[in-house]
Design goal:
Radius of gyration: 25 Å
Oligomer: single chain
Low-confidence stretches: none
Number of helices: 20
Structural class: mainly alpha
Strand content: under 5%
Distance between the termini: 77 Å
Order of helices and strands: HHHEHHHHHHHHEHHHHHHHHEHEEEEE
Mean pLDDT: 81
Largest sheet: 2 strands, antiparallel
């Protein structure tokens, strides 16, 4: 095939089809791998830790996630008929399902997790043709809430890691463990401040390396078992046993599938805009099918739910390298790394306090991304505030009180024991109730949440600068087009009693 230059690719309307050559493609591909490496190894470390498997088995999980992430990335970026957006999108183990999978693994072990992922991903594959019609039910008020809860739900994991992870160990929660986590956290923050973009973007990964070196110097890192096992091997299919299928676990994971499909849709649209190429429904459908197909195949090779990595979308924007073949090269690199179980054992030997210090920032970044999404939501004259409040509140219940659902039927606990599932169900239900069902008739008593979001300063009132079309005065008071009262506050934000034509009285 003739190599397409940048000008030819741009002229064709598909700048992502530019070919940079073998050397440049793999060089930039390594940069993509380094950008997402910390994110792709974290889920198997979390889930393996909760499952209580050995260091060698955690190494297998890490290698498997790298392997299937490589396959998924190649499928998404290079593509085959009906599968793959053919855009520079890097795939990897989704953070969205971590909290749910840890809840499932606590009850049914890893086979139950693999079974739930396979079944829910196949269901997701079936609904991809109609998912574009469902996207309207997952607006920013829903996705932002869910992403925020994902990050917050993982904070106890970071704290557990910082303390040493093993509650039975004599040094669990010791000053030395927490001190090592604090040093790692400090390194993350310092490297993030470095003016060199390549260093600041890799601050999480570099902090783990430096923290591990410090731990080794302090005698808190054990790499003696790294060479116990093969150096090169393809992940063994069903290495943890045949998958088991539990209905409640599948329902719980299907909620994660809906969130994953929404996130991947957003990433496809975002990278299409960054690259400057046309993205239609068919391309989105192909991308979502690649997402779900790779997720359904992942458990066969001991992997988990797959999704597009948003940080790599940002890397495309930062570097300006729009070729999808660069990302395909990155997928090949991930595939090779996944066939090096010795590398997985090295990662599994990293001291948990080091991971805990880095995890505080890594998981906090997820929560911050959700908060950023929520900042774009319109809260004026609607019930979006109560949607966020109730959903986040319900999502935090299993985090604050893990035994909250212990007296309920097992299926209830499986679904709601995960903060992400609880928050997602509540957010979707309330969004349907408040934003899609027919609103109450004008003149009915407004909710305190709706009225509390609209306030006018008294100084602005005199200039009429914040009045809206339909606002009017009734009995000396301002009401909106539906007859709902509009609050008035003074310059210091204090509510005032007023009648038009008289001076306000402060409360």
């Amino acid at each position: 095939m003739v190599k397409r230059t940048q000008a030819e690719a741009a002229a064709s309307g598909r700048p992502e089809d530019e070919r940079l050559g073998f050397g440049k493609s793999f060089t930039y591909g390594i940069q993509h791998v380094l950008t997402m490496y910390g994110g792709i190894i974290a889920p198997p470390l979390i889930i393996g830790g909760v499952a209580g498997v050995s260091t060698a088995e955690i190494g297998l999980l890490v290698a498997s996630c790298l392997f299937i992430g490589g396959l998924a990335t190649i499928l998404q970026s290079f593509g085959v008929p009906f599968f793959g957006s053919r855009l520079p999108l890097v795939q990897g183990t989704s953070f969205a399902g971590v909290a749910t999978m840890t809840a499932i693994v606590a009850d049914g072990g890893l086979p139950a997790v693999f079974g739930a992922v396979i079944a829910s991903a196949l269901l997701g594959l079936l609904i991809t043709p109609v998912f574009s019609r469902l996207v309207k039910y997952f607006p920013p008020v829903v996705t932002g809430t869910v992403i925020t809860v994902i990050g917050l739900s993982l904070m106890p994991v970071a704290a557990q890691w910082a303390m040493g992870n093993n509650t039975k160990a004599p040094e669990f929660g010791s000053v030395s463990n927490i001190g090592l986590a604090a040093m790692t956290l400090a390194i993350v923050l310092l490297l993030s401040k470095v003016a060199v973009p390549a260093i600041s973007r890799l601050s999480i990964l570099l902090s783990i390396v430096v923290g591990t070196v410090l731990a080794a110097a302090l005698g808190k890192a054990d790499f003696t078992h790294v060479w116990d096992g093969p150096i090169f091997a393809v992940p063994t299919p069903f290495g943890f046993g045949a998958p088991t299928f539990d209905v409640a676990a599948i329902v719980s994971m299907f909620i994660v599938v809906l969130v994953t499909l929404t996130e991947t849709t957003a990433d496809i649209l975002a990278v299409g805009e960054i690259v400057g190429t046309r993205v239609g429904k068919r391309r989105i459908g192909d991308g979502l099918r690649a997402d779900m197909a790779s997720s359904a195949i992942a458990p066969i090779f001991n992997g988990f739910m797959q999704s597009a990595f948003a940080q790599n979308v940002g890397l495309v924007a930062i570097t300006g390298i729009r070729s999808r073949f660069v990302v395909t090269a990155g997928g090949v690199i991930l595939l090779v790394l996944g066939m090096l179980p010795v590398l997985g054992r090295v990662v599994a030997a990293i001291p948990y306090p080091v991971l805990g210090g880095a995890g505080l920032v890594l998981f906090g970044t997820v929560a911050a991304s959700g908060i950023k999404t929520l900042s774009k939501v319109d809260y004026n004259g609607n019930m979006n505030l109560v949607i966020v409040a109730a959903s986040v509140g319900l999502g935090m219940v299993p985090i604050a009180a893990p035994e909250f659902y212990h007296h309920f039927p097992a299926w209830v606990g499986t679904i709601f024991h995960s903060g992400i599932s609880s928050a997602a169900l509540m957010a979707v239900a309330l969004n349907l109730l408040f934003n899609h069902l027919k609103p109450a008739k004008a003149g009915s008593d407004p909710s305190v949440f709706a009225t509390a979001t609209r306030v006018i300063d008294y100084s602005d009132l005199k200039a009429f600068s914040r009045l809206k079309n339909g606002d009017r005065i009734v009995d000396g008071k301002i009401v909106d087009a539906e007859g709902k009262p509009v609050q008035v506050r003074d310059e210091d934000g204090r509510p005032v009693s007023y009648r038009i034509g008289s001076e306000p009285e402060e409360h």
